[in-house]
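Quick question, first post here. What does this chain look like in 3D?
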Amino acid sequence: MNIPSELKYTKDHEWIKIEGNTATVGITDFAQGELGDIVYVDVDTLDDTVAEGEVFGSVEAVKTVSDLFMPLSGEVVAFNEALEDEPELVNSDPYNKGWMIKIQISDSSQIDDLLDAKTYQKLIEG
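> Answer (accepted):
Ran it through. Tokens below.
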């Protein structure tokens, strides 16, 4: 199980890479493994400001559809358009080529509520 220590995580199995006021968001290696083969990523919130905990899109696998939740409040400033043609990048490279959105963070104090790698590991190990 790959859980990069430099990233932050949510209980909804999303990872967050913080760079200044920008956060890159995707789903974790654990989440993609649980979902199975990803066939479609739908993000219809580009250029919208979305509150922490709100749905920003969904990911569709062969057997299920799962909502994607905002880890931090902010404006969705980018969508990984490569996923339109190759949604399987979420399975093959969840932490790099399989990223989903970039957020312009509006409340940086929310970063303190995110999980570190060790805490996330404990969460998935149950």
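Helices lie at 29-35, 82-85, 89-92, 117-125.
Residues 117-125 form the longest helix (9 residues).
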